[in-house]
Amino acid sequence: MRHPIRFGLKVSSEDMTVADMRSCWRIADEAGFDHLWDFDHLAGVKGDDGPNHSIFDGWALLAAMAEATKRVRIGCLVTGNTYRHPAVLAKLAVTVDHLSGARLEFGIGAGHAAIEHQMYGIEGLEHRVGRLSESLQVLKALWTQESSTFDGRYYRLHDAVANPKPLQRPHPPIWLGARGDTTLKLVARHADVWNVTVRGSASGAEDARVAGLLGLRLREECERLGREPAEVRWSGQVFWDGRDLGALSSDVAAYLEHGFTEVVIFPDVRGGGADPVAAVFAAAEELDTLRQLRASEPAGA
Asked: Which one of 3.40.50.720, 3.40.50.300, 3.40.33.10, 3.20.20.30 gives the CATH number of domain 6-290?
């Protein structure tokens, strides 16, 4: 099974104005990006003074994004599961799916930012994988069943009704962020797309190589469950400084070489002094060139 290569753009709200975000969304929509993302945090996460940075709510921004764009698919990469009860999250997702005319890509992960949980007294980070597992079951039930009952360790439903249902049936595509063995098991069981973030290696090419090795573990888990591994698309985030187009091209090529067909470009100019709108425009200008690159089959396929 061969998947088409698709390119996404990620726009962080950290230290950005609403006007600049709207400009970035418009550029992404008009330039032909396949999907457009924000992220989900309650406080800033960049640098040692991250919590002091300004940030907006990811799902409220998705509602605005739905109204500000016409074509591009939209999502949150990724939603922190611990921030909301899954019934609340299910309703948010359905609302955005309807507002966008069935353009929602549903991204979710276990959550990781300890400082946010500490500051706001949010519980659940110590059992985040178990909570994510149950949340995925609850979300699917509320999106697809007329009435849902669920008796889990962390979440419970009692003859729960959730209408309307998503426009996309049975539900919007699920993008699950994962790197560890336990979360990769959840990807194999629940996800349409696996999203991985690898950062901190010597180069973008090395990040892509590490991500590809994680993908091999995902293939093994799919096979163990009896699921065709090719059913799960691979998505990698490419961090870019907003300046070096050669590095952007080579990093994208590295992910494609390792079998990734969903590439999310993140012009991460936080703290670097570059103009985020200019960086997004530069990425958009490079999009046609990036589309000439070719994906490879995942190793071991």
From this structure: 3.20.20.30
